[in-house]
Design goal:
The complex is a heterodimer of chains A (291) and B (404). Chain A is an alpha/beta fold. In chain A, 50% of the residues lie in helices and 13% in strands. Chain A folds into three domains: 138 residues, P-loop containing nucleotide triphosphate hydrolases (Rossmann fold), CATH 3.40.50; 35 residues, no CATH class; 94 residues. Chain A is elongated. Chain B starts with 19 loop residues before the first helix and ends with a helix. The radius of gyration of chain B is 26 Å and the shape is flat. The chains are: A alpha/beta (291), B alpha/beta (404). At the A-B interface, helix 2, helix 5, helix 6, helix 8 and helix 9 of A face helix 2, helix 3, helix 4, strand 1 and helix 9 of B.
């Protein structure tokens, strides 16, 4: 099923993800070249959402692997079901040890973890490897092997080859430099904060009962806040929270309610310093810019 | 380069579907990208042909983002791509991004490298010291690099003479300290675990495997515990004129560190960055120091910390730094370059390594506050900012260094 770029953009919008043209191109290219997609960008720009939208778009299952330091094969790939193995050993006590060994290291005693699950599906799923920069170098090397061959070897069982090649999306926040080899393996897309127009459309897509004018105001206001010197720049999720809050309060024009705006900015500003920095004067000044 | 053989089946670009001219243009474009620092392999070029053969190949609005995603590997690649793409394909600014035919590409790259790092010295007055020994080939290169460059080589020879550092007592003490540090800093616990005879947690898989022959009774227990990995130390020593009082001492320390640590690399910088660990690996202190004094012949001029860090990040960081690396920068922070550039390079370095220690000899002085602009720019990225101007002060730091 080869979709064109335009079809991908349309379908993404239909599942609630407003993508820019470049992202649609990247997703189209993933299918054409069968390469994984590496997404980089600030926290909160919607990198993880891309994978969710991609899964929805293809009607595929989303398999997610959250990376952390010390993540190893047992947590990422497979684990044996020890309880069942112990039971099986007890039940067959007295038999030839080699026969038992063969029996308990069979597929039915295997517990799938995300990576193994991703290559054993009949329909190609979307595999999201989230925050790959948090895992250590050993895991990155292992991942590289998996991503190039789409097969894994389990010492007790043998090699398992992918039944369907999953669509792989990797995300990174850039806390650690990724290896060149991994970068080269992947297509690259830098996800930026959406511009005002696109953010307004995102708000409208996710918060259908909001006025178009208010959505535009909120997007403008958040764009202005992002230009302030903040410790934690608000992401799209924060914008959506704030829009929902304003709708809940029954506000239709934020310029008329400066007090409510300042009070509800806790949805957007998530550290004490940022909160202290955006005083009533600052929020009024920013409101003034929102035409 | 990625072997395309191992990759899953990609759409083959039908032979002859694209004109020979277009292929040549694409090859030229790939070379241009390589000249601009992109790492583009054969696999990427093949994929680019597939993109050109697809429907997107006929619209430039689709082609540009597609090739950008394919050829970029980092954010800076991503940002610069449009400019290079436009310049190449619209034949604007061709003189700037010289569209290099295959034969020229290598030379262009060489030229670029040559401008970043000076080539090995030709006959420049001093005898080529290292070629005499049987050291590895790298040394002669590093040797030439360091000797030729520098702000004012002649003045430097007198102001930063390092030969007197071969006082045996001093050397022994510096080595003892480095060895002590190495013992304490050697291992970092990482969160990855490995099977051991004793440990914190049971390794179920191995235990069960061993219990089969006992009918499932776990008699041989296998445990898991955290793996220990050696800490890697990278030292960057500022050898500029303003540091000349301390250079001699730190070179001794450098030699001790390279000698005692399992994994250590040393660099000296002033207006240029010089990789000195190969010369320091010589166990004979006198000979090593002899070599280094030749290497550092350019030492004593102004400092360009930002540029030297940029050179380090660009050429060495990938190879010498991993996530278990502590970087120690020894400098007074008097930078003649732009503080913003220094801050940017510090940020880049910060992302690669575990810890950054900045030892500043001037902190030992009364009334000193880190006011040098360079120091101000670098401080936000530093984990430990401490004084060190002689052996005693460095020894006093030992407990802090051991904990980083």
């Amino acid at each position: 099923m080869a979709l064109t770029r335009e079809a991908i953009a349309e379908k993404l919008a239909a599942v609630g993800y407003i993508a820019d043209r470049d992202l649609a191109t990247a997703l189209w290219l993933m299918d054409l070249l069968k390469r994984p997609l590496l997404l980089e960008g600030e926290a909160g720009v919607g990198k993880t959402e891309v994978a969710k939208a991609l899964a929805a778009l293809h009607g595929a299952e989303l398999i997610r692997l959250q990376c952390y330091e010390g993540l190893d094969q047992n947590a990422a790939l497979y684990e044996w079901n020890y309880q069942r193995q112990l039971l099986a050993i007890k039940a067959r006590e007295g038999e030839d040890p080699e026969v038992i060994e063969e029996h308990i290291f069979a597929e039915e005693y295997l517990l799938e973890r995300p990576l193994l699950a991703a290559i054993r599906r009949l329909e190609p799923p979307v595999l999201l490897i989230d925050e790959v920069d948090r895992a250590d170098e050993e895991f990155e090397a292992f991942l590289l092997e998996l991503l190039s061959d789409f097969q894994v070897s389990i010492p007790e069982l043998g090699t398992i080859t992918a039944t369907a090649i999953p669509r792989v999306v990797l995300t990174s926040n850039g806390t650690r430099e990724l290896s060149d080899a991994l970068r080269r393996r992947c297509l690259y897309h830098y996800v930026d904060f959406p511009d005002v127009d696109r953010e307004a459309r995102i708000i409208l897509a996710r918060q259908p009962d909001i006025d178009t004018a208010l959505a535009l105001q909120v997007a403008n206001m958040v764009a202005a806040i992002r230009k302030e010197d903040l410790r934690k720049v608000p992401g799209v999720a924060e914008t959506l929270d704030w829009a929902a809050t304003l709708v809940g309060l029954g506000i239709h024009d934020i310029r008329r309610e400066p007090e409510a705006v300042h009070d509800t900015l806790i949805c957007v500003l998530k550290t004490h310093e940022d909160r202290a920095q955006v005083t009533r004067e600052v929020s009024d000044r920013l409101l003034g810019k929102v035409a | 380069m990625i072997a395309s053989a191992g990759a899953p089946a990609r759409p083959a670009e039908p032979q002859g579907a694209l004109g020979a001219d277009l292929r040549r243009r694409l090859t030229g474009f790939v070379h241009t990208l390589r000249d601009n620092g992109y790492s583009v392999g054969l696999a990427e070029t093949g994929d680019a042909l597939a993109v050109l053969a697809s429907p997107a190949g006929r619209q430039i609005s689709a082609l540009k983002p597609a090739l950008r995603g394919l050829f970029s590997a980092t954010r800076s690649d991503w940002r610069r791509f449009d400019e290079i793409f436009d310049a190449y394909w619209s034949r604007r600014g061709v003189h700037r991004f010289q569209s290099a035919p295959a034969a020229n590409a290598g030379r262009a790259l060489d030229r670029r490298r040559a401008s970043m790092q000076p080539p090995p010295a030709g006959p420049s007055g001093l005898p080529d010291h290292t070629r005499r020994g049987d050291g590895p080939e790298v040394e002669s290169e590093a040797d030439g690099r360091g000797r030729r460059e520098g702000a004012s080589p002649t003045a430097a020879l007198t102001s930063a003479d390092m030969r007197h550092i071969v006082d045996p007592d001093e050397v022994a003490r510096a080595h003892a300290l480095a060895a002590r540090l190495a013992r304490h800093m050697r291992a970092r616990l990482v969160r990855r675990e490995q099977a051991r005879r004793r440990g914190r947690r049971l390794d179920f898989r191995r235990t069960i495997h061993r219990s089969i022959s006992h009918g499932g009774t776990p008699i041989d227990l296998v445990w898991r515990r955290r793996k220990e990995k050696p800490l890697r130390l990278v030292l960057l020593l500022d050898a500029s004129g303003s540091m000349s009082l301390y250079t001699a001492f730190f070179v001794r320390f450098l030699h001790g560190v390279v000698d005692a640590f399992h994994e250590a690399e040393a660099f000296v910088f002033h207006t240029r960055l010089v990789h000195v660990s190969p010369s320091l690996r010589d166990r004979k202190v006198a000979r090593a120091v002899d070599r280094l004094s030749l290497l550092a012949a350019g030492i004593g001029g102004g400092t360009r910390i930002g540029e030297c860090l940029a050179a380090f990040n660009r050429w060495h960081a990938k190879r010498v730094i991993n996530s278990r690396t502590a970087v120690i920068i020894v400098s007074d922070g008097y930078d003649t370059g732009e503080p913003d550039a220094l801050a940017a390079e510090m940020r880049r370095l910060r992302r690669r390594c575990r810890r950054i220690v900045w030892l500043n000899p001037l902190i030992g002085w009364k009334d000193y506050s880190p006011e040098a602009r360079g120091m101000q720019a670098a401080l936000p990225y530093v984990d430990l900012f401490a004084p060190a101007h002689n052996l005693e002060s460095l020894a006093a730091l030992e407990p802090y260094l051991a904990r980083i």
